[in-house]
C-alpha cells in the first residue's frame, strides 16, 4: 500500500470513528468531501469496505436503505426507524439467537443480522403534528 493510500485510509477511519450516528457510505463521503475534496467517492467506498472486512469498523446490513457503518465493533444491537431510516444502538437483554443452525444446506455460516424496526421519537412526533394539522383543517 503506497503512502497516499495509507493517509487516505487514516482520514476515512478517523472520520468514521467520529461519526456516532451509523452513517452510510454516502454520508461518510459527504463529511470527508468537506475537508478533503480531492478524495474520490470510489476511494472512500473502497476504504470503508476494507475497514469493515478487516473489522476495524462494523458494517451493518439494515432493513431500510443503504448499509451503514459503525465505529463500535463490540457486540451490540440496533433499531432502525422505518420512516427516516436512522439507526441507533439499543440495549437488549437475554437475546437468544440460534448461531449454530443444525442444517445449513451446504452454506458456511459467517454471521447473522438482527436489527429491530420501529418509529423513532422524532418521526412519531412529526406524525402526531401532522394529525393535528389534518384534524384542525376539518374544523375550518
Ligand atoms: Zn425516524
Ligand atoms: Zn451501533
Fraction in helix: 40-55%
CATH topology: Arc Repressor Mutant, subunit A
Kindly estimate the percentage of residues that lie in beta strands according to DSSP.
5-15%
Output the structural class: alpha+beta
What's the end-to-end separation, in Å?
A: 68 Å
Find the CATH superfamily: Winged helix-like DNA-binding domain superfamily/Winged helix DNA-binding domain
As a whole number of angstroms, the C-alpha radius of gyration is 19 Å
Would you give an account of this structure?
- The chain has 140 residues and is an alpha+beta fold.
- It has a single domain (3-138), classed as Arc Repressor Mutant, subunit A.
- The chain has 4 helices and 5 strands.
- The protein has a 3-stranded mixed β-sheet with strand order 4-3-5, with no helix packed on it. Strands 1-2 form a two-stranded antiparallel ribbon.
- Helix 1 (3-18) crosses helix 2 (25-35) and helix 2 crosses helix 3.
- It is flat.
- It starts with a helix and ends with a helix.
- Residues 22, 70, 72, 76, 78, 89 line the site of one zinc ion.
